[in-house]
């Protein structure tokens, strides 16, 4: 009887073995079809520009087309939600504005239909856009220390623009307000464009803005740059000191960008994306291409390090938002 059942048992064991091998084979073949990269903002912004640079390089590296799909709306939340709910197989990825998503996680808590930290995980942080404090030339200050003194001497009179409630621009100004203990007036705008128009016209006095958005206005003398928000000076604004140089230790605000995937995406797929992205952002031509857009390529990190960075962003800005009493409508 034992001999009668042996072939059947052998077939059963073979079937189990092949079932165990199947997912590994599938992963080894990744990717075997086009990948959709969701950009959660309209075309033309920093996230879209970075996404298109990376998508072109990833297509070559992975041997499959990486197709950019702009899915704007709700401050980036519509696109992020679509990826969070996508099949976790590595074929739908998010080109995310990590800092903005992190602030939205607090500002829109309870209203979002996805959880940034539970539903998504980063494959890698790929780059960052630095910010710079600028003033209208009519403001009688030449450096960051003078700005602090002026704000203290004129409580409630110094107005600052922001491009959106949860934008890094707003967060940088709120951090300044908190650390310097000054009373400055927030004037919200829907986007950097209108904010910049009023700042140049003198309707508002100051702003913390991304370097690419203000670089030309600084060069033309329409705005005065006081300090950049990175730990070191920037190659694209070499004469502008850092906030830290100006005496404010630990002040650092950048807008981070990264590629994220649904949280259940297999580790092997995430590792493959991480490896290819690391190679891409380290290449000299991609660094140059990104820098032309005011984006600095990030130093490659592991998926675990990228996840730690995302958690830090949520925690840090959650505290700033709570301390400043910022709501999604103010």
Description:
The chain has 330 residues and is an alpha/beta fold. The chain folds into two domains: 164 residues, Bordetella uptake gene, domain 1 (D-Maltodextrin-Binding Protein, domain 2); 99 residues, 3-Layer(aba) Sandwich (D-Maltodextrin-Binding Protein, domain 2), CATH 3.40.190.10. Helix content is 47%, strand content 18%. Strands 1, 2, 3, 4, 5, 6, 7, 8, 9 and 10 form a ten-stranded mixed beta sheet that branches. Strand 5, helix 7 and strand 6 form a beta-alpha-beta unit. The radius of gyration is 23 Å and the shape is globular. The termini are far apart. The N terminus is likely disordered.
SSE layout and pairings?
Layout: H1 2-28, E1 35-39, H2 46-62, E2 66-70, H3 77-84, E3 92-97, H4 98-107, H5 116-119, E4 120-135, H6 144-153, E5 159-162, H7 168-180, E6 185-188, H8 192-201, E7 206-210, H9 211-219, E8 224-228, E9 254-262, H10 267-282, H11 284-292, E10 296-297, H12 303-324
Helix pairs in contact: 2-10, 4-12, 7-12
> What level of helicity do the residues show?
40-55%
Low-confidence stretches: 1-6, 19-26
CATH H-level homologous superfamily name of the largest domain: Bordetella uptake gene, domain 1
Number of individual domains: 2
Q: How much of the residues is beta strand, in percent?
A: 15-25%
Count of alpha and pi helical runs: 12
CATH architecture of the largest domain: 3-Layer(aba) Sandwich
The CATH class of the largest domain: Alpha Beta
This entry's quaternary arrangement is single chain
Protein structure class? alpha/beta
Mean pLDDT: 91
Q: What is the CATH T-level topology of the largest domain?
A: D-Maltodextrin-Binding Protein, domain 2
Gyration radius over CA? 23 Å
- Total strands: 10
């Amino acid at each position: 009887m034992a001999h009668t059942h042996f072939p059947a048992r052998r077939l059963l064991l073979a079937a189990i073995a092949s079932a165990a091998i199947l997912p590994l084979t599938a992963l080894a073949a990744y990717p075997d079809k086009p990948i959709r990269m969701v950009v959660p903002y309209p075309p033309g912004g920093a996230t879209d520009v970075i996404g298109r640079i990376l998508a072109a390089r990833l297509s070559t590296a992975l041997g499959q087309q990486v197709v950019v799909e702009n899915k704007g709306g709700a401050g980036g939340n519509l696109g992020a939600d679509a990826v969070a709910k996508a099949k976790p197989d590595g074929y739908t990825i998010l080109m995310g504005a990590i800092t903005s998503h992190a602030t939205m996680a607090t500002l829109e808590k309870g209203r979002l239909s996805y959880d940034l930290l539970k539903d998504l995980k980063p494959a890698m942080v790929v780059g960052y856009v630095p910010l710079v404090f600028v003033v209208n030339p009519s403001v009688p200050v030449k450096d960051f220390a003078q700005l602090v003194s002026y704000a203290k001497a004129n409580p409630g009179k110094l107005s600052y623009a922001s491009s959106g409630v949860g934008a890094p621009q707003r967060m940088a100004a709120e951090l300044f307000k908190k650390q310097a203990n000054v009373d400055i007036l927030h004037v919200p705008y829907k986007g950097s464009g209108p904010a910049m128009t009023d700042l140049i016209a003198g309707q508002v006095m100051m702003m913390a803005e991304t370097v690419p958005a203000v670089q030309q206005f600084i060069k033309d003398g329409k705005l005065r740059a006081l300090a950049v928000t990175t730990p070191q000076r920037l190659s694209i604004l070499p004469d502008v000191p850092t906030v830290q140089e100006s005496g404010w230790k630990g002040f650092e605000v950048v807008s981070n960008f990264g590629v994220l995937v649904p949280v259940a995406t297999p580790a092997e797929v995430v590792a493959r994306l991480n490896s290819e992205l690391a190679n891409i952002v380290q290449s000299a031509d991609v660094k140059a291409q990104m820098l032309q857009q005011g984006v600095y390529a990030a130093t490659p990190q592991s998926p675990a390090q990228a996840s730690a960075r995302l958690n830090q962003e949520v925690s840090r800005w959650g505290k700033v938002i709570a301390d400043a009493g910022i709501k999604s409508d103010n």
